[in-house]
Specification:
Layout lengths: L2 E6 L9 E6 L14 E9 L9 E9 L2 E6 L8 E4 L3 E5 L1 E2 L28 H11 L1 E3 L7 E4 L7 H17 L2 E6 L7 H14 L2 E6 L24 H9 L7 E5 L14 H7 L3 E7 L2 H9 L10 E7 L3 H9 L3 E4 L1 H7 L6 H6 L5 E2 L11 H18 L18 H15 L17 E5 L11 H8 L5 E6 L2 E5 L2 E2 L4 H19 L5 E2 L37
Parallel strand pairs: 3-6, 3-7, 8-11, 11-12, 12-13, 13-14, 14-15, 15-16, 16-17
Antiparallel strand pairs: 1-2, 3-4, 4-5, 7-18, 9-10, 10-22, 18-19, 19-20, 20-21
The structure holds zinc ion.
Zinc ion binds next to loops.
Length: 552
C-alpha cells in the first residue's frame, strides 16, 4: 500500500519546507541526516554502468549511510526507508568537469557573443573577462592602453559565494552530483575562501580547481595565486592546508596552473606545484597543441598524466593526441560552448579515434545552460552529424572512412564514468557499485513526454530534460526530493543572487580609478547595462550574424 506522509526536514536551522514522501516503510525522516540511515530504492530500472554489477530491468538499491550496500533484483527492506522507484531510472549522478561557477550571476549575459573580440564588440573576452571580472578595458586598437579601470574587480567575495552556491544547487536539480569549479576569480584570499565556502555549503561533490584571478596588488589588494612549493602561507599551499587536508570529503582540490613555470621566474612548473599539494590538474587549452608538446619535453612534468585534464583540446593535430593517449591524460569537451563561441570544432572524433572517452563540461552560464541532457544530446548529435555526412559521395568526395556513430550508452558514460575519472573520484563514485558512495539520480520516466519507455539509454539521451530529475542522493544523503531542494529556501537564494548581480553592475557603473566606461553599443540609457530584449551584442545587431530578409 502506498501512503502519503508529510514530514519535516529536521536539519538544524535550515529553512526547511514540508516534504512529502511516498513509501511503504516507516515514517522516519528521509531528508534529515541521511548519512546515518538505510534507504532502499525499490523497483526502478537500475543502470549501474558497472559491467561487473550489470544493469537491471527492475531492481533494488540499498544505501547504508553514505555508501551503496547492495544491488539486486529484490532486497528485503529490513529497517530501511523504502522509496518507490517504479517507473523511474536509477543511475549514477551525472559528473561534469569544467564550469566557471562565479559567473552564475551573469547568466545568459552574452548568448550571441563569441569567445574573443575587443570592446566595443560584446564578446566573452570584453564583457565577461574585462568588464565583469577584471574591471578594466583596453583600447581595441592598442591592447596595452587601458581606457577604463575600476581599480578593483567588480565582484566582492560575497558575490562569488552566492554564485557558487546557486550554481551547485542548480546543477543538483539537473542531476549533476559532481562538478569541477574553474572559477577564475581568486582576486584576493577572501574571494578564494568565499568560493570554497559556497561549494562546501552546497552539499554537492566538487573539485575546486584553484585558478588565477586578477592581480590587483598595484591597487593595494592582496594577490596570492599561485603560491609556492613547501609554502602553506599563501596560494594553493594555504588552501590545501586550511580546507583540503583530507581527500575523504565532498570537496577536493584541483589546480588550474599549467605545465610551464608556475609563476614568472619560478623554477617549478604549475603541475609540480599542483602535485606537491595533492591537487588534480585542470588546464584550459583552446587551440594550444604546442603546450602539449612543450609539456612533454619538460621532464619535471613526469610521464604519467592520469591526473591531468585538458579542457577543450580544439584544433590539435595527431602528435598532440598521441601524447595525450600515451600518457593517460583526460579530455573535457564543452561541446555546446565550443560550437557556439568559436573555440574550434569540439574534438569528439579525435578523442574517440585515440581511444579516449572524453567527459563533458558546461563551461560558462554567460552563454549556455549547464543541463546535462543538453550536453549529452549536443555530443551525440554533433559526432553523428559529422560522421553521417561522410556516408554520402556528394559530401565525402575523398572517400574518407565513415566513423562509427556514438551510442546513447557511450554518451551517458561520458557524462558519468569519464567525468569521474577526470575528477579523480572514479574509485568512489561514477558507477553504482556496492562499496562506492551513493551519488544517485532517480529519473522519472513515467511522464507524459517519455512514456512508454522502450530503450533506457535512449530515453535518457534523446527524450529527457531536467524536469525528469525526481530525486538526487549525494553520499547517501537525499539532497533533492520529488523535484524540490531539501533544506533550502530557493526564493530567498534567487533574491540573493539578483541582489549580487545588481551590486556588481552598480560598481561597474560607479566611480572609476581612471578613464570612463566606454559607451558600448548596448549602453543606450547612459550607464552600461546588458541588453535585455534584443541581441546581447552590438546594439542588437550582431555584426557576425548573417544578413537576411525577413519574409513575414
Ligand atoms: Zn573554461
Amino acid at each position: 500500500m502506498r501512503r502519503r506522509e508529510f514530514i519535516k526536514a529536521s536539519a538544524a536551522g535550515l529553512a526547511a519546507s514540508t516534504i512529502s514522501t511516498v513509501g511503504c516503510g516507516t515514517s522516519s525522516d528521509l531528508v534529515g541526516d541521511g548519512r546515518k540511515r538505510r534507504i532502499l530504492l525499490h523497483g526502478g530500472v537500475v543502470l549501474t554502468l558497472d559491467p561487473r554489477v550489470g544493469d537491471f530491468e527492475k531492481a533494488d538499491v540499498l544505501i547504508d549511510g553514505p555508501r551503496i550496500a547492495r544491488i539486486a533484483p529484490t532486497i528485503s527492506a529490513g529497517d530501511a526507508e523504502v522509496v518507490d522507484c517504479s517507473g523511474t531510472i536509477v543511475m549514477p549522478g551525472f559528473i561534469t568537469t569544467h564550469h566557471h561557477q562565479y559567473e552564475t550571476l551573469q547568466r545568459s549575459m552574452i548568448p550571441d557573443g563569441l569567445l574573443t573580440g575587443a570592446w566595443p564588440e560584446e564578446s566573452y573576452g570584453s564583457v565577461v573577462q574585462n568588464i565583469w571580472t577584471a574591471g578594466r578595458i583596453a583600447d581595441a586598437a592598442d591592447p596595452n592602453k587601458i581606457v577604463w579601470d575600476l581599480g578593483r574587480p567588480p565582484y566582492d567575495p560575497e558575490d562569488c559565494y552566492i554564485s557558487e552556491l546557486v550554481a551547485c544547487l542548480s546543477e543538483i536539480s539537473e542531476g549533476i552530483t559532481t562538478g569541477t569549479d574553474t572559477s577564475q576569480s581568486s582576486h584576493t584570499p577572501e574571494h578564494t575562501d568565499a568560493m570554497i565556502k559556497g561549494l562546501m555549503d552546497s552539499g554537492r561533490r566538487m573539485v575546486y580547481a584553484y585558478s588565477a584571478g586578477i592581480d590587483r596588488s598595484a591597487d593595494g589588494q592582496a594577490y596570492e595565486f599561485p603560491g609556492a612549493m613547501h609554502d602553506t602561507t599563501k596560494g594553493i599551499g594555504r588552501i590545501a592546508k586550511k580546507y583540503f587536508s583530507s581527500r575523504d570529503q565532498l570537496v577536493t582540490l584541483g589546480f588550474g596552473g599549467g605545465p610551464g613555470p608556475a609563476a614568472p621566474g619560478a623554477d617549478f612548473t604549475g603541475w609540480q606545484l599542483a602535485r606537491a599539494f595533492g591537487a588534480s590538474i585542470h588546464n584550459h587549452n583552446v587551440g594550444g597543441q604546442n603546450i602539449v608538446m612543450s609539456a612533454a619535453a619538460d621532464p619535471r612534468n613526469g610521464t604519467d598524466w592520469s591526473d591531468v585534464t585538458f579542457i577543450h583540446c580544439t584544433r590539435w593535430q595527431k602528435p598532440a593526441w598521441e601524447i595525450w593517449r600515451d600518457r593517460g591524460a583526460h579530455v573535457s569537451i564543452a561541446v555546446l560552448i565550443e560550437m557556439q563561441m568559436r573555440h574550434g570544432m569540439p574534438p569528439l572524433q579525435q578523442a574517440l579515434d585515440h581511444g579516449i572517452l572524453p567527459s563533458l563540461s558546461p563551461d560558462v552560464d554567460t552563454n549556455m545552460t549547464t543541463d546535462p541532457f543538453s550536453l549529452m544530446r549536443g555530443a551525440f548529435c554533433l559526432q553523428r552529424a559529422l560522421a553521417n555526412d561522410l556516408a554520402f559521395p556528394e559530401t565525402n568526395p575523398g572517400q574518407l572512412p565513415v566513423p562509427q556513430a556514438l551510442t546513447c550508452r557511450q554518451v551517458i558514460e561520458m557524462a558519468t564514468i569519464a567525468g569521474a575519472a577526470s575528477n579523480r573520484v572514479l574509485d568512489n563514485v561514477g558507477t553504482l557499485t556496492p562499496g562506492k558512495e551513493a551519488d544517485i539520480v532517480v529519473l522519472d520516466a513515467h511522464s507524459i513526454n517519455t512514456w512508454p519507455m522502450n530503450n533506457v539509454p535512449g530515453t535518457i539521451v534523446t527524450m529527457m530534460n531536467p524536469r525528469h530529475v525526481r530525486d538526487v542522493v549525494i553520499a547517501g544523503k537525499v539532497v533533492y526530493w520529488k523535484g524540490k531542494h531539501v533544506g533550502w529556501d530557493v526564493d530567498k537564494l534567487l533574491g540573493q543572487i539578483e541582489q549580487a548581480r545588481d551590486r556588481v553592475l552598480t560598481r561597474i557603473n560607479g566611480h572609476a580609478k581612471s578613464g570612463q566606461l566606454p559607451r558600448g553599443n548596448n549602453s543606450f540609457t547612459g550607464p552600461y547595462r546588458p541588453n535585455f530584449l534584443a541581441s546581447c551584442c552590438d546594439k542588437g545587431q550582431n555584426t557576425t550574424s548573417p544578413a537576411y530578409v525577413l519574409r513575414p
